[in-house]
């Protein structure tokens, strides 16, 4: 078990900086998920921890050692690659045991360990096969076993589930979490799938364009997204955004000229300039549809998608689309005007220019219609 | 694989005709001539051939000098192939590591293949000349240590060097291409698993090179049997005392110098059978056996 400290780490390729000064402290035995779209620098950061990518500037520390100048093998990390990177000419047993062989472990001892590890990931009967004869899920397990057998201080996962089909992905996700809980090694998991991130992580690191947008537990990140970027990335369906101007106190003018009064919902921080440009963020799952004029604002119904357990309503506020997820199933006509009621936790405010979050104090009482 | 069929056969014939012509003129015609000569005996002053069956082959196979030539060819093939493949493999492994300046070396390494064999032979003749070439400094320091003009082994070493040098470029292209088709992540996985550069080469890259390795091996052996004429002719002329009288060179000497068309033709038939056998071996056994995925 090791903790990892990343201090002002930067990475440039031929003069173009792709990771811009990242700082991160990863605790012992923690499961960290780095989340972001492709090209955000998350894999590069992971590879810098692994030692597969040179660190342009800054410092990576694993345990109490600065590892910048250390070879991958000296860093005590195991890694699971996106395409598994199994040695195609070796049997499953040799794939799993290769690290031990390189380390010079006796053959008998090695085979015993390989068999034991293979058993734990359900590969016991495939030891003599070549990777080419295995299914995607089995290859994934070999890659996992190869990482586990080394009993590393740090587990690194580079989008290991993205090549699996949906069902297998969920299954392997659970397996990875189970293995983490049993072994307790520090894990860093890179993915672009927010569901994977939310379900696996002790703490999420959300990255965008080579910087960290937010670090926090999945709950924190969901409840208090630090920026419109994070808010739009975390949660499914994605958060709705409406451009607005601050009127006074928690009262906003929407771009359409409509007034939204949030007095019952939240306290605004002091010091916000009047007429400041804002983004009003609304969580789809914290909105309810009611009769016209019954909520904080009026919208038009477009169509609904059936989810089985509930419905996904597609609405429109002038030309801005608004989605609502609700368990209540209502039958509405296309173009029908309806009122939008805000449940606690529905509203998030962000600065219009920077997209950063405006810290507001939540009122506990459910909002009532104050104005329209 | 889907095949396209031509309805109009004469169009198909027209399209392949130029290629067929070339193959006919430069391969089937000479080969059939050689075959004809191999089984006949040319009259000393011209005026027709006499059918003699396997007499020419019997003469050759009972000739000690022919077997010397076979032995010398095998020695040349073995050492040239080993040296050329070893060198090119090492160079490709390092070019693949993308160390500083690898782009320059990558191009530089391919150039020798564009040089004709006689030119290579001439250049190396100067380099290895015991009294005037670069090697003369060696003789200055240790008198008599290097003398390919009188010493058969030295002469053999000299043509092996030249032949291998020329072959390195060709092998290098294949090895580099094969190395670059190995996914980077395999080597990274190896690095994470604790293997150093050399260990990764041995355990991961070389095994995955096996199909290319055997292909190049057969090509090299074939090449050193058939394509060594230019080098031998310019460097040693088969000497000293037939120490470098390879099979191809002996065919030329017997045929064009000794004017024994029939004997030379029979030898070239034997050489052809040898090359065909090697190629069949390559396709039947090796290509099928060494495969992963």
UniProtKB/TrEMBL annotation, chain A:
Domain of life: Bacteria
Protein name, UniProt field: sn-glycerol-3-phosphate ABC transporter ATP-binding protein UgpC
Gene Ontology MF terms in the entry: ABC-type transporter activity; ATP binding; ATP hydrolysis activity
InterPro entries in alphabetical order: AAA+_ATPase, ABC_transporter-like_ATP-bd, ABC_transporter-like_CS, ABC_transpr_MalK-like, ABC_transpr_MalK/UgpC-like, Mo/tungstate-bd_C_term_dom, NA-bd_OB-fold, P-loop_NTPase
Keyword Lyase belongs to the record: no
Keywords: ATP-binding, Nucleotide-binding, Transport
BP GO annotations: carbohydrate transport
NCBIfam families to which the protein is assigned, alphabetical: PRK11650.1
Gene3D superfamilies according to UniProt: 2.40.50.100, Nucleic acid-binding proteins, P-loop containing nucleotide triphosphate hydrolases
GO cellular component: ATP-binding cassette (ABC) transporter complex, substrate-binding subunit-containing
Family recorded in the similarity comment: Belongs to the ABC transporter superfamily.
Organism name: Pseudooceanicola pacificus
ABC transporter domain residues: 4-234
A Pfam family matched in the record: TOBE_2
Organism lineage string: Bacteria, Pseudomonadati, Pseudomonadota, Alphaproteobacteria, Rhodobacterales
TrEMBL record, chain B:
Function summary: Part of the ABC transporter complex UgpBAEC involved in sn-glycerol-3-phosphate (G3P) import. Probably responsible for the translocation of the substrate across the membrane.
Organism the protein comes from: Pseudooceanicola pacificus
Assembly with partners or alone: The complex is composed of two ATP-binding proteins (UgpC), two transmembrane proteins (UgpA and UgpE) and a solute-binding protein (UgpB).
Spans through the membrane: 9-29, 70-95, 107-128, 155-179, 200-221, 264-286
UniProt xrefs under InterPro entries: MetI-like, MetI-like_sf, UgpAE/MalFG_permease
Subcellular location: Cell inner membrane; Cell membrane
Record-linked PANTHER family: BLL4140 PROTEIN, SN-GLYCEROL-3-PHOSPHATE TRANSPORT SYSTEM PERMEASE PROTEIN UGPA
Protein family (similarity comment): Belongs to the binding-protein-dependent transport system permease family.
First and last residue of the signal peptide: none
Domain ABC transmembrane type-1: 70-282
One of the record's GO cellular component terms: plasma membrane
Highest taxon of source: Bacteria
Gene Ontology annotations of biological process type: transmembrane transport
Keyword Metal-binding among UniProt keywords: no
The protein's name: sn-glycerol-3-phosphate transport system permease protein UgpA
Pfam family, one: BPD_transp_1
Membrane association type: Multi-pass membrane protein
Keywords (A to Z) from UniProt: Cell inner membrane, Cell membrane, Membrane, Transmembrane, Transmembrane helix, Transport
């Amino acid at each position: 078990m090791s903790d990892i400290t990343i201090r002002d780490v930067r990475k440039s390729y031929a003069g173009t900086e792709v990771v811009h000064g990242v700082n991160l402290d990863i605790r012992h035995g923690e499961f960290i998920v780095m989340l972001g779209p492709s090209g955000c620098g998350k894999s590069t950061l992971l590879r810098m921890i692994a030692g597969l990518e040179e660190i342009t500037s800054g410092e990576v520390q694993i345990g109490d050692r600065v590892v910048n100048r250390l070879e991958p093998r000296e860093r005590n990390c195991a890694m699971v690659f996106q395409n598994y990177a199994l040695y195609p000419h070796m049997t499953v047993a040799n794939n799993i045991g290769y690290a031990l062989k390189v380390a010079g472990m006796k053959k008998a001892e090695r085979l015993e360990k390989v068999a034991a590890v293979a058993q734990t990931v359900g590969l016991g009967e495939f030891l003599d096969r070549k990777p080419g004869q295995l299914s995607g899920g089995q290859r994934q397990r070999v890659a996992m076993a190869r990482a586990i057998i080394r009993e590393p201080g740090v587990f690194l996962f580079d989008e290991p589930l993205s090549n699996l089909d949906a069902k297998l992905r969920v299954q392997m996700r659970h397996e990875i979490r189970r293995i983490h809980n049993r072994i307790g090694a520090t894990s860093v998991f890179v993915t672009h799938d927010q569901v994977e991130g939310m379900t696996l992580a002790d703490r999420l690191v959300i990255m965008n364009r080579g910087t960290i947008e937010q670090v926090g537990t999945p709950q924190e990140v969901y409840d208090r997204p630090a920026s419109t970027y994070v808010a739009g990335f975390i949660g499914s369906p994605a958060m709705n955004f409406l451009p607005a101007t601050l009127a006074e106190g928690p009262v906003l003018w929407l771009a359409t000229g409509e007034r939204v009064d949030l007095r019952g919902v939240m306290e605004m921080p002091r010091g916000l300039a009047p007429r400041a440009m804002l983004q009003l963020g609304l969580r789809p799952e914290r909105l309810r549809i009611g009769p016209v004029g019954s909520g904080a604002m009026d919208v038009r119904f477009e169509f609904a998608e059936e989810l089985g357990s509930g419905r996904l309503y597609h609405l429109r506020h002038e030309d801005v689309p608004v989605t609502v997820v609700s368990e209540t199933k209502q039958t509405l006509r296309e173009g029908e005007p309806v009122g939008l009621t805000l449940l606690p936790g529905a509203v998030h405010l962000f600065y219009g220019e920077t997209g950063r979050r405006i810290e507001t104090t939540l009122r506990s009482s459910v909002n009532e219609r104050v104005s329209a | 694989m889907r095949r396209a069929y031509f309805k109009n056969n004469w169009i198909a014939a027209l399209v392949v005709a130029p290629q067929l012509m070339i193959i006919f003129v430069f391969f089937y015609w000479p080969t059939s001539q050689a075959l004809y000569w191999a089984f006949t005996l040319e009259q000393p002053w011209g005026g027709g051939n006499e059918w003699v069956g396997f007499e020419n082959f019997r003469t050759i196979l009972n000739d000690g000098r022919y077997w010397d030539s076979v032995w010398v060819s095998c020695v040349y093939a073995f050492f040239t192939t080993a040296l050329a493949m070893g060198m090119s493999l090492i160079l490709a492994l390092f070019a693949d590591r993308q160390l500083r300046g690898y782009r320059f070396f990558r191009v530089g390494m391919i150039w020798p293949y564009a040089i004709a064999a006689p030119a290579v032979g001439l250049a190396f003749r100067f380099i290895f000349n015991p009294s005037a070439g670069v090697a003369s400094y060696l003789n200055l320091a240790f008198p008599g240590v290097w003398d390919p003009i009188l010493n058969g082994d030295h002469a053999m070493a000299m043509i092996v060097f030249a032949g291998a040098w020329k072959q390195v470029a060709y092998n290098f292209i294949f090895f580099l291409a094969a190395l670059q088709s190995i996914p980077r992540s395999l080597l990274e996985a190896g690095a994470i698993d604790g293997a150093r550069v050399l260990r990764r080469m041995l355990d991961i890259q070389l095994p995955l090179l096996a199909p290319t390795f055997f292909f190049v091996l057969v090509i090299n052996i074939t090449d050193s049997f058939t394509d060594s004429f230019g080098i031998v002719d310019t460097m040693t002329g088969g000497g000293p005392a037939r120490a470098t009288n390879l099979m191809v060179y002996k065919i030329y000497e017997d045929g064009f110098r000794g004017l024994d068309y029939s004997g030379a033709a029979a030898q070239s038939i034997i050489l052809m059978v040898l090359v065909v056998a090697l190629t069949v071996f390559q396709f039947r056994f090796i290509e099928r056996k060494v495969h992963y995925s």
